Amino acid sequence: MQSQWLFQHVRDKLANRQKITVTTDYSCLDKGEREQQDMATLRRWHDEGLIELQGTEAMIEEFERASPGVKARLEQQYLGLEKLIPEFGTVLGSWRLGYGRLGEVGTLRDGKDALYYYSEFQELMFANFGHVSSEQRVSNFMDVMHISIHYLFARDIFLTKNFRHFKADKLRRKFSDLVILTPKQFVDVLENATISRG
Fold first, then answer.
1. Local confidence band at 37 (pLDDT 50, 70, 90 cut-offs)
2. How far apart are CA 167 and CA 124, in angstroms?
3. What range defines the domain where residue 15 resides?
4. Are residues 77 and 30 in contact, defined by beta-carbon separation less than 8 angstroms?
5. Are 2 and 188 in contact (CB under 8 A)?
6. CA–CA gap between residue 143 and residue 146 (Å, rounded)
7. At what angle do helices 183-197 and 2-15 cross, to 10 degrees?
8. Domains identified in the chain, total number
């Protein structure tokens, strides 16, 4: 059911010359040759204006934690992402999502703020959040941040190579408009939608 909706959604956006907003998490950067082909295709479509590839603040933290060798390899891909800092201001714990003036209402979606979505996604993805190693806790925190920011700003597609880690089926039962794909899956969807458009 979701695949039909997604296909139609992508076709409609293309027909109306609207960019498809795509959040990519850190796992999509610097992978094997096939994955890099998919990401290269997505970057080309970004340059052509079909899609808008975006990162999140959590990616900034992951990039900063990477070893110097990994940072050097990822820098061009990482810096090529649009809007790593959203336009609107809100605070999630000690994380500041965007820039807002003091007293300004934070970003809301359906009347709910970042903290609401963060707690919802954490509960669905990592109910045992406190019963893992500190390293795994940081990794889990980053994943919840990625998906929370993506959903808060109502972007179209969330890309990850850690598909099972995000418990996509479980999340989609709660958030029916949440689309989580691998880069290859999204390339296939967009290629089919473009072909069917003629």
1. confident
2. 8
3. 2-197
4. yes
5. no
6. 5
7. 60
8. 1
Per the CB < 8 A criterion, the answer to whether 26 and 61 are in contact is: no
- When pLDDT is averaged across residues 126-148 and rounded to a whole number, the result is 81
Q: What does the longest C-alpha to C-alpha distance in the chain come to?
A: 52
Place of tokens 């994380």: 95
Helices (H) and strands (E) in the chain, counts: 8, 6
Looking at the predicted structure, is the pLDDT value of residue 2 above 80?
no
SS3 25: coil
The two structure tokens encoding residue 43: 């970057």
Measured over the CA atoms of residue 125, residue 131, residue 137 and residue 139, the dihedral's sign is negative
Higher pLDDT, 180 or 87: 180
For residue 189, report the phi and psi dihedrals to the nearest 5 degrees: -60, -45
Looking up residue 52, the CATH number of its domain turns out to be 3.40.50
Q: Stretch 89-108: mean pLDDT, rounded?
A: 49
Which two three-digit tokens encode residue 169?
């089926």
Distance CA(46)–CA(54), nearest Å, equals: 10
Q: CB–CB of 54/21 below 8 Å?
A: yes
The tokens describing 83, both together, are 């809007």
Secondary structure of residue 23 in the 3-state scheme: strand
pTM, two decimals, is 0.81
